[in-house]
Amino acid sequence: MVIMSGRRRAQVSEDARLMGQTAYIYEVGCGLSLDGEETLLTGDLVPADGRNVHALIEDSGAPALLLESYPARLEVHSPWHREREFSHLMRGLVDAEEANELLRAHGHADLRLVDNGAVGRSETGLEVDGTPHGYHLIPRGASKGNAVAAHMRARGYAPEDCVAVGDSREDLGVAEFVGRFYLVANAVERDPEIRAHAPEGSSVEVTEARNGDGVYEAVVRSLAERR
Predict the structure, then answer these.
(1) Coil, strand or helix: which one is 211?
(2) Which of 85, 144, 175, 199 is the least crowded, having the fewest Cβ atoms under 10 Å away?
(3) Domains of the chain by residue range
(4) Could you read off the pLDDT of 83-105 as tens digits, one per residue?
(5) How would you label 177-203 residue by residue, b for 16+ Cβ within 10 Å and e otherwise?
(6) pTM above 0.90, yes or no
């Protein structure tokens, strides 16, 4: 079992430790920790001159561009935006593809805004027309899917050996690499259009149960049907 998350390394590593895991994926696939070795999956954008990737993205002006372009629809996801190594964390409700076109038009083609799923309305003061989402601004080459693929290569796993479970549009990218992919029921409840964002040709199943119970259902179902 490998946790994949948009959370900081310190948070994910503690969850992994409690579960006895020796590998985990953090900050939306920007980093992969495997048997104590850290691998950055950020492409050409790497730490330089004592500044990490998060600082380099800040220096580029891309976060300010997004916040200024969507003043009533996007804000910093405080307090969880602090002490990050890679991604700039925001919340609100925007069209991620539209935002990425904006980034490209302003010379930031090496970055992308990722929709990492719904957040609670109580977490934001923005008056958005719909369920607010969390977003990560990350290097274009980074993704949860690429991080899962890197872990599979390192372990020698074939797609048919792997099952993944997620609850966001970004999680759906993992379906391209694994044998079976499940969305937990609450993902569809909070984002009814989510399945339309699955990679072409991939198979996405939806559990009957929500949250952790949905993860349990996906694991038990997959094991039972392999017998």
Answers:
(1) helix
(2) 199
(3) 1-41+143-156, 53-139, 158-227
(4) 999 999 999 999 999 999 999 99
(5) bbbbbbbbbbbbebbeebeebbeeeee
(6) yes
